[in-house]
């Protein structure tokens, strides 16, 4: 773990004892801070107590004793309304931080020769793939790389830092809201489209949270900015005017006189005197589709920002094995391929998968996001049939009525079985695609659990096929 610096001898309250909160509590204790832990889930409190960590009811505690409160990212800071812990902290003048902020302060407190390199990645879509891809390039290039944040391990649970380490961190808007002193050597802002608006009070608040990733950069740092959406384009223009860091625009939809871009699967580097083709991304089996070409452009630019040579960075793109729950092939039964895109928790993310295949048997639904799937209407012609699950199923069925065949399946297991039966009956090569366009919290703890349920359903079908053979 990374012992947290700056709170030696002080008491830090920690609210929320899932992966992030427990990792932070351990790291604070390792850094010689005192902690007071609380979670409204009795099982989470019991898990903390089993580790010997002090559990304190923060609702009745004296907040004047706390130097800070560390909130898990899921705790509302401002919208729809501040959480009660936020109100108590503000009433007592207690600083509110997240685990990324604790990490940032620990990095900033280290002597220059012991500070690691930090790559921070955010965006509405593609950040997990890009984070894993940058980590893969760094590892293949021989760097001591650690990957975490909003993916995999909580950042403070990663191996302790040294001057040669590289931390590649996926950051959500929730995490960025709780971060003020992070200074990434390379910051990547992939794209921005409407998401989590209820949490940020609208689009303005969401964009403001995303651009916090650029807050502390200066001379010698690299900012990689996606310019295929109006918000990214505006941010790129604004920070270019500030002219304090190396700025690399990226695109998967247009050629640029400056930056890194992909056209028809070919990756070009236009950061020098002239644009040069550096990779044929169609050879990268784990990076299909234009959205993945944007991810590849970002990862290539970030790797260059870390000093990895262009040829090496481009070469390692092609050996990327892919990311679980993101357009991940989890099985083949006859001519039917099953693709797990459980990480598509909004319509824009689902668009990327739907646009990558000419015809799909589409499993969609869950806890709906604002706007539902209305924005995907131009892709409904690619849907052979939709199998709808979770809370969103009735509303999605209405949207699809007259535009694509659909059935309310209810559960992932039922949807998978129905989709396979129809796909197999077609007698053609077929794709059964789980790309929900929804959050998972109506039926699952997170998108990973939903994706694993799909994987298990495919395995059960395979076992049944073997038993019948």
Short description:
The chain has helices at 19-30, 42-50, 84-92, 99-109, 127-140, 173-177, 197-200, 203-211, 230-242, 290-305, 310-317, 347-354, 393-400, 412-425, 447-468, and strands spanning 11-15, 34-38, 68-71, 95-97, 117-122, 144-149, 165-170, 186-189, 222-226, 246-251, 259-263, 266-270, 276-280, 328-333, 336-340, 360-365, 367-368, 383-389, 406-410, 430-434, 438-439. It is an alpha/beta fold and 469 residues long.
Would you kindly provide a written description of the structure presented here, covering whatever features stand out?
With 469 residues, this protein is an alpha/beta fold. It is built from 15 helices and 21 strands. The protein has a 9-stranded mixed beta sheet, sandwiched between helices. It has a 6-stranded mixed beta sheet with strand order 14-15-20-16-18-19, sandwiched between helices. The protein has a 4-stranded parallel beta sheet with strand order 2-1-3-4, with helices on both faces. A hairpin with a 2-residue loop joins strand 11 and strand 12 (266-270). Helix 5 crosses helix 10 (290-305) and helix 10 (290-305) runs antiparallel to helix 11 (310-317). The longest helix has 22 residues, at 447-468. It is globular, with a radius of gyration of 23 Å. The mean pLDDT is 94.
Write the topology of this structure.
Elements: E1 11-15, H1 19-30, E2 34-38, H2 42-50, E3 68-71, H3 84-92, E4 95-97, H4 99-109, E5 117-122, H5 127-140, E6 144-149, E7 165-170, H6 173-177, E8 186-189, H7 197-200, H8 203-211, E9 222-226, H9 230-242, E10 246-251, E11 259-263, E12 266-270, E13 276-280, H10 290-305, H11 310-317, E14 328-333, E15 336-340, H12 347-354, E16 360-365, E17 367-368, E18 383-389, H13 393-400, E19 406-410, H14 412-425, E20 430-434, E21 438-439, H15 447-468
Helix pairs in contact: 5-10, 5-11, 10-11, 14-15
């Amino acid at each position: 773990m990374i012992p947290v610096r700056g709170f030696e001898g002080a008491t830090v309250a920690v609210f929320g004892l899932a992966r992030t909160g427990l990792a932070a509590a351990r790291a604070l204790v390792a850094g010689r801070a005192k902690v007071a832990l609380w979670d409204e889930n009795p099982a989470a409190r019991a898990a903390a107590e089993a580790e010997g960590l002090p559990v304190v009811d923060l609702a009745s505690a004296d907040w004047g004793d706390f130097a800070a409160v560390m909130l898990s990212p899921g705790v509302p800071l401002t919208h729809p309304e501040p959480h009660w812990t936020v109100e108590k902290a503000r009433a007592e003048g207690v600083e509110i931080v997240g685990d990324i902020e604790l990490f940032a302060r620990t990095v900033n407190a280290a002597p220059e020769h012991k500070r690691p390199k930090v790559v921070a990645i955010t965006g509405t879509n593609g950040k997990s793939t890009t984070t894993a891809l940058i980590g893969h390039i760094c590892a293949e290039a021989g760097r001591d790389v650690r990957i975490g944040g909003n993916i995999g391990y909580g950042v403070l649970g990663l191996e302790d830092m040294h001057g040669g380490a590289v931390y590649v961190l996926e950051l959500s808007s929730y995490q960025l809201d709780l971060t003020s002193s992070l200074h990434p050597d390379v910051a990547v802002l992939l794209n921005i489209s409407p998401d989590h608006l209820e949490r940020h009070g609208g689009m303005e608040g969401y964009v403001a949270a995303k651009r916090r990733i650029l807050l502390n950069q200066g001379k010698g740092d690299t900012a990689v900015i996606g310019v295929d959406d109006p918000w990214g384009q505006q941010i790129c223009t604004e920070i270019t005017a500030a002219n304090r860091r190396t700025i690399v625009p990226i695109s998967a939809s247009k050629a640029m006189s400056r930056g890194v871009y992909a056209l028809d699967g070919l990756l070009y580097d236009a950061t020098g005197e002239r644009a040069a083709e550096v990779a044929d991304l169609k050879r990268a089996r784990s990076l299909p589709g234009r959205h993945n070409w944007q991810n590849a452009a970002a990862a290539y630019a970030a790797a260059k920002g870390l000093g990895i040579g262009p040829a090496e960075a481009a070469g390692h793109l092609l050996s990327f094995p892919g990311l679980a729950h993101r357009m991940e092939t989890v099985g083949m039964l006859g001519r039917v391929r099953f693709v797990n895109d459980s990480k598509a928790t909004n319509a824009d993310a689902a668009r990327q998968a739907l646009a990558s295949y000419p015809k799909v048997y589409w499993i969609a639904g869950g806890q709906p996001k604002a706007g539902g799937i209305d924005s995907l209407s131009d892709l409904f012609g690619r849907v052979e049939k939709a199998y709808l699950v979770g809370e969103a199923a009735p509303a999605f069925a209405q949207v699809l009525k007259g535009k694509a065949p659909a059935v309310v399946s209810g559960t992932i297991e039922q949807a998978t079985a129905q989709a396979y039966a129809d796909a197999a009956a077609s007698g053609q090569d077929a794709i059964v695609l789980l790309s929900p366009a929804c959050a998972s919290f109506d039926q699952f703890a997170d998108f990973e659990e939903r994706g694993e349920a799909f994987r298990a359903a495919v395995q059960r079908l395979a076992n049944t096929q073997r038993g019948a053979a």
